[in-house]
Write a structure and sequence with these properties.
The chain has two domains: 189 residues, Rossmann fold; 114 residues, Beta Barrel (OB fold (Dihydrolipoamide Acetyltransferase, E2P)). The two termini are 37 Å apart. It has a six-stranded mixed β-sheet, with helices on both faces. A five-stranded antiparallel β-sheet has the order 13-12-11-14-20. It is built from eight helices and 20 strands. Helix content is 24%, strand content 34%. The protein has 362 residues and is α+β, with helices and mostly antiparallel strands. Bound molecules: adenosine-5'-diphosphate and magnesium ion.
């Protein structure tokens, strides 16, 4: 069991700075997910924690020890990769046993650890197979088993599910979460997939350009995004944005919308200020879709495309002044070109500074 503390962690490659000073405290037993677009420095951060990349600047502590200069095998971490990195010429059993053999773990203890991992991951039927004789999901389980048998203090995952098809990915996601709940091992998990991040994380860390844009519980990050980047990255489909101006201290005007603002929810609402309004698709509710609208503002818009997803329908719509996506939770047939009235849940709107993108929420 160990906490992990990153203090101003920096990675410089030649003239490029991949990670620009990450501060993060990960409590013992937490499940933390680093999420962000490709190239934002997630893998580099994880690899510095693993000891696979040197640390250019800053301090890394695992379980109270500074481990900057320790070799990977001395840090008490085990890493699972997207590519599985199994030994192709070894059976599943040999793959699981290999690192224990290297670490000179006594035979009896090793076989007990292997048995436990095999049971936890339901690998029993495949022990004598080689990786080439396994499905992607089974290989991924072996890769996790290999991490578990080492009894690490910290699990590190780098996009472990990216090579799996959607159904299997969802299934493995649940398995990883269950396993972590059972083992209670501190886990740092990297993904570019915000749904994976939202569902797995106790703490979600949104990264952009080598820095942390925001960290918090999944709900905090979703409900109170710190800036426009986080607001657009978390949530599917992404938040709608409309530029406009505060016509007075409690009214947004823009994109043909007039939205009353609750002055207790925002800072610095001054008449004339230019802002960006953010509305999640579920907060633009088409009239007559079966749910009672809570909206305090309405707009008329023409549907340009509807996407029926079964449990919900996404409506892509436009007015003369704006385009947006709305979510219809109790679907009814809608044709392209239909003109509908939408109710805006103004009490759930977001506001951002038009230049810096910073949230104005209190
Ligand atoms: P992510 O995992 O978030 O997609 P990475 O951590 O892999 O991003 O990369 C962050 C940045 O560092 C990228 O701009 C990438 O090109 C750069 N980078 C990663 N590895 C190396 C390397 N070995 N040498 C030089 N640049 C690298
Ligand atoms: Mg990566």
């Amino acid at each position: 069991m160990a906490d992990v503390i990153l203090k101003d962690l920096v990675k410089i490659y030649g003239r490029d700075i991949a990670v620009r000073g990450i501060d993060l405290t990960i409590p013992d037993g937490a499940f933390v997910v680093l999420v962000g677009p490709s190239g934002c420095g997630k893998s580099t951060t994880l690899r510095m924690i693993a000891g696979l990349e040197s640390i250019s600047h800053g301090e890394l502590r695992i379980g109270g020890r500074v481990v900057n200069d320790l070799d990977p095998q001395d840090r008490g971490v085990a890493m699972v990769f997207q590519s599985y990195a199994l030994y192709p010429h070894m059976t599943v059993r040999e793959n699981l046993a290999f690192s224990l053999k290297l670490a000179k773990v006594p035979e009896a203890e090793a076989s007990e650890r292997i048995d436990r991992a095999v049971t936890a991951l339901e690998l029993g039927p495949y022990l004598e197979r080689r990786p080439s004789e396994l499905s992607g999901g089974q290989r991924q389980r072996v890769a996790m088993g290999r991490a578990i048998v080492r009894k690490p203090e910290v699990f590190l995952f780098d996009e472990p599910l990216s090579n799996l098809d959607a159904k299997l990915r969802n299934q493995m996601r649940v398995e990883i979460k269950r396993l972590q709940h059972r083992l209670k091992v501190t886990t740092i998990y990297v993904t570019h997939d915000q749904v994976e991040a939202m569902t797995l994380a106790d703490v979600i860390v949104v990264m952009k350009d080598g820095v942390i844009a925001q960290s918090g519980s999944p709900l905090e990050v979703f409900e109170r995004p710190a800036d426009r980047f986080v607001a657009s990255f978390i949530g599917t489909p992404q938040m709608n944005f409309v530029d406009g101006v505060l016509s007075d201290a409690t009214t947004f005007e823009g994109g043909g919308l007039t939205i009353p603002l609750d002055p207790t929810r925002f800072n610095s609402l001054t008449a004339g200020r230019h802002v960006t309004l953010g509305l999640r698709p579920e907060d633009i509710v088409p009239e007559g879709h079966g749910l009672r609208p809570t909206g305090t503002a309405t707009l008329q818009a023409t549907v340009t495309l509807s996407e029926m997803l079964g449990n919900e329908t996404l409506l892509f719509a436009e007015t003369a002044a704006m385009q947006f996506v709305a979510r219809m939770q109790q679907p009814r047939p809608v044709a392209d070109g239909d003109r509908l009235t939408f109710h805006v849940n103004a009490e759930r709107c977001h506001l951002f500074d038009i230049d810096t993108g910073k949230s104005l929420a209190v």
